[in-house]
Amino acid sequence: MTAIAQSLPAHVQTGALSIRNLSKTYPLKGRPVPVLQGIDLDIRPGEFVSILGASGCGKSTLLRLLVGLDPDYQGQILLDGQPLNGPGLERGIVFQDHRLFPWMTLQQNIALALKNHDLGTAQKQRLVDEHIALVGLRGYEQAYPHQLSGGMAQRGAIARALVNKPKVLLLDEPFGALDALTRVRLQQELQRIWVQERCTVIMVTHDIEEALYLGDRVIVMEANPGRIGEQVQLELAHPRQRDTALLFQHKQRLLEQLVGH
Asked: What is the pairing mode between strands 31-43 and 17-28?
């Protein structure tokens, strides 16, 4: 057990999410416009859930509500049976752009996430070192973000999100800004990291192949207003091969469905 795990309260469950009748509206020209409507979802501890859908279906809005950035919604979101109350260390998030501070080294960026923890300097340093190694960036501790490739910087962002040992890792199009080859490589890295860490992961993506390759379950959202249209359960062990016949069959069916919409 790591130092941070020992320092935080123990929980019977870790990372179980329950979403009940979740709805969200935005005001537009003086009238409420529904963005999400009647979302009901249960996510098991340690499950990797991919949320798939066209632009405008409310995927990123749902993620904002889960991370606690927007308290204005109807319904209920529970983490391990407790209502969410704003952002918290039990949830880490990675955005499409890495958002590392340009004036800090990789090591300093990751260490910043531990600022509010009551841990000794040596304990914090050990956690930072562990997570730099976890994402394969050992040797780049003193590099600044501009000295890293896009893929390396995004791995740094994943390390920063995981260093708190969150129950839930939220990913908002984490590889959307990367070239195709780097994207494939980071998908493999993310799969490896998740298999090792086993925290609950919820990833928003437009990429059908990415959603199927990484997810234990793929949730397809429909738009106007955003709602759950279909759920695909993938009974495939990790790590996976991309050319699996089952993944190809699901990809073809989901592609036809989404393009049809």
From this structure: antiparallel
Round to whole Å and give the CA distance between 119 and 125.
10
CA distance 25 to 212: 30
Instruction: Check residue 230 and give left, alpha or beta (phi > 0: left; psi -120 to 50: alpha).
Output: beta
Query: Containing H/E element for 165?
Result: none
Supply φ then ψ for residue 157, to 5 degrees.
-65, -35
Q: In whole angstroms, what is the distance from residue 145 CA to residue 152 CA? A: 9
Task: Kindly report, residue by residue over 116-174, the tens digit of the pLDDT.
Answer: 888 889 999 999 999 999 999 999 999 999 999 999 999 999 999 999 999 999 999 99
- For residue 259, pLDDT over 80 is answered with no
d(CA 132, CA 25): 40
Q: Side chain identity at 105, as an amino acid letter?
A: T
Q: Which residues of 147-159 are buried (b: 16+ CB within 10 A; e: fewer)?
A: ebebbbbbbbbbb
CA atoms within 13 A on the CB side of 39: 37
Task: Give the three-class secondary structure for 151.
Answer: helix
pTM (two decimals): 0.89
Centre a 10 Å sphere on the Cβ of residue 179 and count the other Cβ atoms it contains: 12
DSSP 105: -
